[in-house]
Write a structure and sequence with these properties.
This protein has 185 residues and is mostly helical. The protein has a domain of 69 residues. 83% of the residues lie in helices and 0% in strands. The protein contains six helices and no strands. Helix 3 packs antiparallel against helix 4 and helix 4 crosses helix 5. The longest helix has 52 residues. The two termini are 69 Å apart.
Length: 185
């Protein structure tokens, strides 16, 4: 009886076994294909981010090139434009004062930001020296130096150093492009 039952079950299950194995194999293949698609998608995303970083780096380089180009003088541009006309006596007589006027204006224009920075630093140092001289009257020199340097002085120093040296490094460290300040991801 057991033999009959086993042969009956084998007869029923036997033809189903290849279909079950095919179904299992298809599930594995689909799982493998799904993983491959996910890996391709991740690779495409990485390639896109690499290309974007490459474009940002190229833009940074081009921006730095433009920013470091010397500013053209309007006086020199005026003389270049009037080169043929300057061959006459009247041309030289009219263009020379214009050139000197624009040279002086270009110099003054180029000195605005440095002058303001030097003046602000000079006033700051004058103020600190005055505080030090007042503090020196009531305490020894070492204590006067310590009392002159406050938390606000540290804040000013770190602000200036951060502005001049840390802006690009902070953007790169915190994520994002060095020219857009937008975080990645």
């Amino acid at each position: 009886m057991l033999t009959l039952m086993m042969s009956f079950l084998t007869g029923i299950i036997g033809p189903l076994l290849p279909a079950v194995l095919n179904l299992f194999r298809d599930m594995q293949e689909r799982s493998h294909e799904l993983k491959m698609y996910e890996m391709r998608l991740k690779a495409a995303q990485l390639e896109h981010s690499w290309r974007m970083e490459e474009l940002n780096a190229k833009a940074d380089i081009e921006e730095a090139k433009v920013l470091h180009q010397p500013t053209g003088s309007f006086g020199v541009q005026l003389i270049d434009a009037a080169k043929d006309w300057a061959q006459t006596t009247w041309g030289k007589w009219l263009i020379t004062p214009a050139f000197y006027m624009f040279a002086i204006l270009d110099f003054l224009n180029g000195m605005v930001r440095p002058s303001i920075a030097y003046a602000a630093f000079g006033f700051y140092m004058f103020y600190k020296v005055a505080i030090f001289e007042l503090a020196k009257r009531t305490m020894d020199v070492n204590q006067a130096i310590v009392n002159t340097w406050t938390e606000n002085d540290w804040a000013v120093l770190l602000m200036v150093l951060g502005f001049f040296f840390g802006q690009r490094a902070a953007k790169a460290l915190l994520g994002g492009s060095t020219n857009t300040a937008k975080a990645n991801g």
